[in-house]
Write a structure and sequence with these properties.
Rossmann fold; 220 residues; 6 helices; two-stranded antiparallel ribbon
Length: 220
């Protein structure tokens, strides 16, 4: 069997938001029984069928790079992570729906990964006002995933999901909200599964098909 082409997707977010549990669910369709803190970076692989069900269908490896979530501002911490940001093809930004700060910190994570040679300084989020221009020229596909949906009381769910919808809009990204301890949130045919597949298709297209803006190059 010929080796499959692959793409690299970073999984970024604060410690404790559930990145490792999410990656395990995405790659194995199973709940991670005893998640632990990620030191450095952990890599797992998902098999994805690009444009499934069409004549253009092709199977790819999706490498999911789960980067340790320390938000320390020390230059040494950022420079250590920088090695993981090389040659990335897509980014999944993960936040805890019960922790507003983890949502706000996604701006810092994305800027650090997309502009790794210019470390962000100061506060990037102030009273909910975001500088969208920082992400206006981004060509890397992004997906925003909120975890711990099951822990939000029904009385507050609409308020929280409205706030996170604006977050995804700022990144020009689709949004998935789920509970990583329940595989049904990513069941085949569900809206979340469709969004995920669409994101991976976009990552593959950026890596293997799209060149020079709108010019399309097909590779065998």
């Amino acid at each position: 069997m010929a080796a499959l082409d692959r793409v690299k997707v970073l999984v970024l977010g604060d410690s404790g938001v559930g990145k490792s549990s999410l990656v395990h669910l995405l790659c194995h369709n199973q709940v991670l029984g005893n998640p632990s803190w990620t030191v450095g970076c952990s890599v797992d692989v998902r098999i994805h069928d690009y444009k499934e069900g069409t004549p253009e269908e092709k199977t790819y490896y999706i490498e999911l790079w789960d980067v340790g979530g320390s938000v320390g501002s020390a230059t040494s911490v950022k420079s250590t992570r920088a090695v993981f940001y090389n040659l990335l093809n897509g980014i999944i930004l993960v936040h805890d729906l019960t922790n507003k700060k983890s949502s706000q910190n996604l701006y810092r994570w994305s800027l650090e990964a997309l502009n790794r040679d210019v470390a962000p300084t100061g506060v990037l989020v102030t009273n909910g006002d975001y500088d969208r221009e920082k992400f206006g020229d981004n060509q890397i596909p992004l997906l925003v995933i909120g975890t711990k949906l099951d822990q939000i009381p029904e009385t507050k769910r609409n308020e929280v999901l409205t706030r996170t919808a604006f977050l995804a809009e700022d990144f020009n990204a689709e949004e998935i909200n789920l509970d990583c301890t329940n595989p049904r949130y990513l069941a085949a045919g569900s809206s979340n599964a469709v969004k995920l597949s669409r994101f991976f298709d976009k990552v593959i297209e950026k890596r293997y098909f799209l060149r020079d803006g709108n010019q399309v190059c097909h590779f065998s």
